[in-house]
Design a protein that fits this description.
The chain is of the alpha/beta class. It is built from 9 helices and 15 strands. The strands form 3 sheets. Strands 9, 10, 11, 12, 13 and 14 form a 6-stranded mixed sheet that branches. The chain has a 5-stranded mixed sheet with strand order 4-3-1-2-15, with helices on both faces. A 4-stranded antiparallel sheet has the order 5-8-6-7, with helices on one face.
């Protein structure tokens, strides 16, 4: 198979997805790695239908990669995850509306285009958790204790764009991160971004049937195949506080191989949108993931190459998928794949 990975500079040296690229190459598949944030792209040529079996997105929220993925989907190419599903969870205001409407246990959510509008939230809802609607990786998440504290924070919040605010769910300072990959669920416990001083280190934990059912429902509600769910164990039961497409899969056993197999299966089938559903299995995550691959990209370019098994010189000019403005380098494995 031939796959295209869209990888922002933010993730250029991350183990995920670089280790996945390495694994796919070792199995004999061809992988193009595109840096959407640093490329001048002729869109029609980039998303030429039939050039790739699937496109895979690993980018920051709000980055240009999602536009490319949506263009590929519009051209009829399979995308991982489904491009519309990614849009549905990356906008946290939209995700809250979809999730609450479909019965997921999400907290009540307020959205405001300007931070001063949050002052209209009733005092009874405090303390509040306020964060950007397009935030990720715990960026700019604030615990706001009172209306007076909100007013004092307005200058700090003014540059964050659309904001959401949710009543704080009392918790012990940790949350449960559930990863869904290949129809399986894996759980870890980690320090909450609202309690950074907690002494809890991320660790694998058993996954209760109740949380597993909620995590499976998340995949069905949003149409995701590879995803992560942040769950708080509140006084009234589990509460979903965030959903991520293509997360880090930290501490999932053999993470790179599991994700690579899932990508191949989705490329073959077109994606089910219900990964981790009733047929999936739930377990605690094992020790570590596959490791050792520092970077999928070449040095200094917006578009790089991943190498495994050596590049096929005859393949490069014949399969060039991007215009000369983006010097795409393609790596090829040597086998038929896994």
């Amino acid at each position: 198979m031939r796959l295209c990975f869209l990888v922002e500079e933010h993730y250029r040296h991350d183990g995920m997805p670089n280790e996945v690229v390495r694994q796919l190459l070792a199995w004999g598949h061809r992988v193009d790695v595109v840096r959407p944030g640093g490329s001048l792209l002729r869109m029609a040529e980039v998303v030429d239908a039939g050039t790739h079996d699937a496109w895979v997105l690993k980018t920051v929220s709000g980055g240009p990669g999602l536009t490319l993925l949506e263009a590929a989907a519009a051209a009829g190419t399979t995308t991982v995850n489904d491009a519309r599903s990614i849009r549905g969870v990356r906008d946290k205001a939209l995700a809250a509306a979809i999730g609450r409407g479909r019965g997921l246990p999400l907290p009540p959510t307020y959205a405001a285009a300007r931070p001063e509008l949050l002052a209209e939230i009733p005092d009874s809802e405090y303390p509040l958790v306020v964060k950007p609607a397009d935030g990720s990786s715990g960026r700019a998440v604030h615990l706001v204790s009172s209306p007076e504290r909100l007013l004092a924070m307005l200058p700090e919040l003014s540059g964050e764009g659309m904001l959401i605010a949710q009543p704080y769910v009392p918790n012990p300072g940790t949350d449960i991160k559930v990863y869904a990959v290949g129809g399986e669920l894996f759980a870890t416990e980690r320090c909450s971004p609202l309690h950074p001083d907690s002494a809890v280190r991320e660790r694998r934990v058993p996954l209760s049937a109740e949380v597993a059912a909620i995590a499976s429902q998340v995949g069905a509600v949003y149409g995701l195949d590879l995803y992560g769910v942040d769950v708080l164990l509140g006084p009234d039961g589990p509460v979903v506080v965030d959903v991520n497409d293509f997360p880090s899969f930290r501490q999932v056993p053999d993470a790179a191989a599991r994700v690579a197999r899932a990508v191949l299966e989705l490329a073959r089938t077109g994606g089910s949108g219900i990964a981790g559903g009733a047929g999936g299995s739930a377990s605690a995550a094992g020790q570590g993931g596959a490791g050792g691959f520092a970077s999928a990209g070449g040095q200094g370019g917006a578009v790089g190459s991943a190498s495994g098994g050596g590049a096929d010189p005859a393949f490069l000019p014949r399969q060039q998928g991007l215009p000369s403005a983006v010097p795409l380098q393609v790596a090829a494995g040597s086998g038929d794949g896994a």
